[in-house]
Amino acid sequence: MIGVMPRNFYFMPSREIDMWMPASFPPWMRTNLTWHDAQIVARLKPGVTIDHAQQSMAALSLQVTAKNFRGPRSVIVAPLRAEIAGKTRTALILLLSASGALLLIACVNLTNLLLSRGTARGREVAVRAALGAARGRLVSQFLIESLVLAALGTLAGLAIGLPALRFLERLVPEAMGAARLTLDWRVLAFSAAAAIGSALAFGLAPALRGSHVAPQEALRDGGRGIAGARRHWFQHSLIVVETALAVVLLTCCGLLLQTFQHLRNTDVGFRSQRLLTFETPLFRYKEFPRRVAFINAELEAVRAIPGVVNAGAISRIPFTNAADATFYWLEGQPRSSIPQQVALIRNVSRGYLATVGATLHEGRFFSATDQASKLPLAIVNEPFAARHFQGQSPLGRRFKFGDTGEKGYWYTIVGVVKPIREAGVLEDMKPAVYRLHEHCDQIGSLQLGIVVQTAVEPASIIPAVRQAIWSLDKNQPLARIQTMDEIVDRQLSTPSQSTALLSAFALLALLLAALGIYGVLSYAVAQRTNEIGVRMALGATSKAIMLSFARRGLGVTLTGLAIGVVLAAIASRLISTLLYGFRPDYITTVVAVSVILVAVAALACVVPARRAARIDPMIALRQE
Questions:
Q1: Residue 600 has pLDDT above 50, yes or no
Q2: Whole-number Cα distances in Å, 308 to 51, 138, 460, 462, 464
Q3: Is there a smaller number of Cβ atoms within 10 Å at the N or the C end of the chain?
Q4: d(CA 320, CA 491)
Q5: Which residues fall within 8 angstroms of residue 407, CB to CB, at 6 or more apart?
Q6: Alpha helices in 50-184 (DSSP H)
């Protein structure tokens, strides 16, 4: 050991890496096309763009590969930040936007509350103004009240934020490391600044309106407040704004819910239920015969465990690593076709495909006699077959990996399986080749994954699995013991957590919008008590009074709904990268959101409208 990195250091491809060694490239790697597993990271010089680097690397690749590999090889230069973060960056931007929209809705409600409170305090403000209080002093008092409310809300938000951090950590991509989210001084400073800014921005209008009172008019009004048409128009406009924002959040939530359901139901090509997986690195078995013997001994020992149905081995467990891709050449093809033909390559045991529940499309699975056969066999997936054998059977056709020289095995295709999403649920299906461990001594991998099909809960056999492996080699490490369901869930963690958070925001937005409608109508009923009494004394029925207030609330709601639908259409385009190529039913989503919003708004209108309908005309006129 020559150095120890800081505790929080991490780098690609995984946060679980604990040791780094110098990269070495033996001669066979430099000349063998079958080795296709290098990741190169470079820091660009100042002023050099990604496009410039792409052009330079393409030219360099052409010079090297044209000389040594009988054809050009493509090189892709990608920003490391985009490679690591991927769609998580879009998800975080969406959640930040949703948080801002929710904050705006809450501030709009606070503004309406302060406006109503300022109107109700008209007599108090008038008395203070008549006694000589300057308007600046009155504005300051209203703003201080806004700041106090904002401070209390900030403290409550920080208290809720502590447990929410553990939830947000699941959105962090694996390649970004195990950095722990904390409420440090920057978060506290931002929260304080947001609270102060919101209080001043949304408390200023109520402060200016509340302090702008004509003393004689307010005192003559008797303390019931001043409720002019302009004030009602302003408050109704605020309700329209928050309703429109709620529609946007609800629509985006509906689209993401449909997408997540689609991802959940996506056919991954195997059955993930009751599958236990773990890795047993084979660095202690570098000689090929010993390695194959140990793999088979492992599988036999695991199969002997009570509760185990079957077990299989594979060089790369699905969803855990998309590497091990290589060039291949079909018998009879020209050499020029090699650079365009790349397939995933997986070394498997005889019973692996049956263990994971792969579906055979044509041909057969590997058999016991194939292991001892000197004829290298392969099973390909449907994308591989469709690329070269459209309308024809690929069975019996031969291909080899890498160079077109005399070296290398000719593999004979004996089966075609439906594609397994080796790279993950969110990735496209690629051509793949499965071959037996016994036939891969040319590129024998020292990585090995074991997949165990169980009749019991997979976690219950973990101790027995450890003992079975250690009975063969007490120094053999077992790594990443997990169920396949856990691997799938981790694959879907970003869309899952994004959808869950946005759903919570959307429900809060709907609740706040309903509270806003309820508050404005309740305030209107309180301000128009005398008017309602006069109308009822002149013959207006309770039903007519109730319908008039319900129409007002629903009218504001429908206006906000119309604006929100337009904004939601724009927002749906912005979040398209989070839909993973899926096209959810936008029309159905908007209709469902509209029905939900109108129903909730109607419920919010009922209580104030019924209160208005139950006003006793005699009591209302007596107050006058």
A1: yes
A2: 53, 77, 11, 11, 10
A3: N
A4: 9
A5: none
A6: 50-68, 80-85, 87-120, 122-130, 135-168
